[in-house]
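Final report, results section. Input specification for complex C-07:
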Amino acid sequence: MKPQTLAKGGGIVVLLILAVLFPQVFNNPGVSVYGVFAMVFATAAVAWHIFSGYTGYISLGQAVFYGSGAYAMGIAARDWHMSPHAAFELFPLAAAVGAIIAVPFGLVALRVRRHTFIVVTIAVFFIFQLMAFNLWFTGGSSGLGFPFLNGTQAQVNETFYYIGLGCTVGSVIIAWLIGRSRFGLQLRAIRDDEDRARGLGVKTTRVKLTAFVISGALSGLIGAVAFYYVGQVEPQTGFNPLFDLTLVLMVFLGGFGSISGAVLGALIIEPLSQWINTQPSLTGYSEIMLGGIFLLVVLFMPRGIIPTGSEYLTKLRTRGRAAVSPATTVGPASSTPSSPSVSSGGAR
Amino acid sequence: MAREIAQAIVDGILVGGVYALMAVGLTLIFGVLDIINIAQGVLVILGAYLSYSLLEKAHIDPFLGLLVTVPAMFVIGVVIHWAFISRLRGSERTSMTLLVTYAVGLIVEGILFKVYGANTVQINTWYTNSTVHILDFYVGWIYIWGFILAVALVAALYALLYRTRFGRSVRATMQDETAARLVGIDVNRVAALTFGIGVAVTAAGGMVFGSTIAFNANSGYDLISRLLSIIILGGMGSIGGALGASVFMLTLEAVVTVWQPTWAVAVYYAALVIVLLYRPAGLFGRKAVRAQ
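Structure output:
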């Protein structure tokens, strides 16, 4: 094994141990709540990455799955009169609902590309919010309650932290396996040049839809976890337009196109925004701050922390020597050909 | 029933004129700069709040106040373009500008919440509260004035685009940016001014919007999702398409409201999905949308 791979593996193991120990060290519920939400958003960001990061189609409709997963679980728990502990068995149902919704959603939205795709995902998102408000089984604008878990806040936090951690690790593994596979290669071929990928025999629609469904399943699952933890889901929290922008912000801050970027961005942004929300002197500023950070990232560090940082490290290491091929493979955006110049001729 | 539907059609056409004004700004920006201004919805609300403040604080009639708010929104548009949009380059520019304008919209929304609070307000004048009886229909004066204003402004935009030298350079940039640059058009200047004009119309749109309905900083989301549906239906970048789609969609919504008030908004999204399934370029769109 190369020493670099070894160092990387060692780093991941250390991180995992730290993550597992976190609630044991910080068992104050005021602190561990940050951990729970960080894990929720890390999973959601990786799920976003599985579709949008690999294919380059930026989805602003992930909240559709997130909210639907939460609603599916809430409705099932209510109608089947689930006890709080039995309700944990509903998480796979939430994932299944996310996956099922992703099929028609994807079939419609994936007919168009680039900005039209983004707009369609926003439109579908609003349809779902509208349905959550108005359908007879969703509880209307007051939303749904979840079964109430007994135990102290610290115990509840610990339970959900480990569930969240499990989801994060699971989705990172899925994303990593996809990235290494032939399927992942096809997704990236679509990102670089969809028409050429199709010309080379990639079944683009099927491949994109598969990634979308996987992403939807994971988002639905984590949505159910998040709202079971919160205990309540309303249309405007379950289907929150800020949710998608937050995910995109996390991924762009960490580094668009890399799994570690998605996780890192979530671990930075989510505790920060939780903290802002709990400061009485800052109430009402969270939107301004979120927007402001986003603008700073996009304008000054458009490729994110991980690609910029690893390039910097490579520069440090290779100083004085002939530069080995620089680590451009980390930043996918750099290798993307400028598609507008290609398409502006109206190729087809 | 037939009476109610006829009334709904009249209402729809009148409100559609106002939406057309806002949608034209959006589609113009898209056509020239190839970006979608997600902040348009919030900027409409900002325009509404500006008129509201002028009326409440300085007792200036909203229609007269447009002489102040339209140039103010124009300047805001040019500043947004200069500060954020002109700085983005590269292959992912379109997607990035979409996110950047989303972020700008969030900041504006946050500021509006801070300044005006979360309570809804409405612009109140004599013509927002009284109706007129024409040909068996009851129509609010504001709808009539708003419609006349919208038609006048859209006509002015048309004249600007099709009868002036500046308009010709705008259309040239829409057709082919590189070629426009080659024949000596200052594309950056055209882009900045177009963005300014596209935002400036939100002052008028917002004034009428704020006079017809109670609003707060949050109303921008609902508005932008409608406007986006309209410009996609009309074909992105097509000004005539935006006009037609606004009137069509608002009329459809008003007619559906007669039966099903809660689901009326869904007609936008349903129409959008159906159109995209059969005509991905929109009803009047340029073919290129799919190829992008």
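Chain A has one domain: 32-303. Confidence is low (pLDDT under 50) at residues 328-348 of chain A. This concludes the modelling results for the funded period.
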